[in-house]
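**User:** Once you have settled down, spend some time on the protein underneath, comparing sequence with structure tokens, and judge whether sequence predicts the tokens.
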Amino acid sequence: MKTVALSLFVATVVSWLATPWVRALALRVGVVDQPGGRRIHQHPTPRWGGIAIWLGVMAAIAASTAVGAMGGWFHLNAQVVALLGAATLVAAVGLLDDKFELSALWQAAALLAVSVLVAQWMRIDSVTNPFTRQSIPVAAWLGVPLTAMWLFGVTKTIDLVDGLDGLASGVCAIASMALVVMALLMPIPHVTQPVAVVCAAVAGASVGFLRYNYPPARIFMGTVGAQFMGFVIAGAAVIGAFKMAAALAVIVPILALGVPLFDAAFAVARRAASGKPIYMPDRGHLHHRLLDAGLTVNQAILVIYAATFVLSAGALLVVMVLR
């Protein structure tokens, strides 16, 4: 528990302190998001805030590892190393996208390639039947593509939901803390302990960055931040929830991300039905609809925060009752 608290604290402080420096860097090299089109903001705003989030997460993991070397219970394992390494590759692609605006197809291809690669080290090998509480093995040939699809889908979902100031960072903080609580409720050595520390780091980095990203945002996390956090959360769920032989554990990551997952699924269906490419952006996302209904930016964000919190709390309550 102390290591989890340390991870949360270090990530929050490092992200909070690093964000102004990252903002100055983005302005200096011209990585700035201009208003217009589907964009809600009214003034040019620097991107690359995800660099501060990455620094916060890595600093938290380093601090937790140092404590583990001195006798603590947290130790890096191959799965966590593979996850953080792959997430860093995803962040690097996002870094380039924020600067050079890569095509959606190139972004998707790079993300899918990294997802397939990391699935060699960590994969969904079983899921829990919520009615019988039995672990159902996943065939070896299906594990890698299923894991890659999950990693790709969640990562793109967080990227898609990053449409309002503070929205993605707040949703990621809530979803990550839900996974932390799940891991602490179901302590499995070398499985859920790393999940708790990693997700606490993501939550802390999100909160530290939110200090500068909440409306009116002074910096955006950009693709580098949205895809990094989405990939880490998705990977943590593979290491933790999907490997638990405990009833309904799989519900936690799915419900915690229920709002953005539903929004992404609806966006794909909407674009396919209209004959548009599914990767083509539009103004049909949930946050756009809330704004069109007359809500302010702050109100729309709080509505989505509340929905994410309620879904996360409900999933955890069910797990507590049936574990």
Observations:
- The longest strand covers residues 126-128.
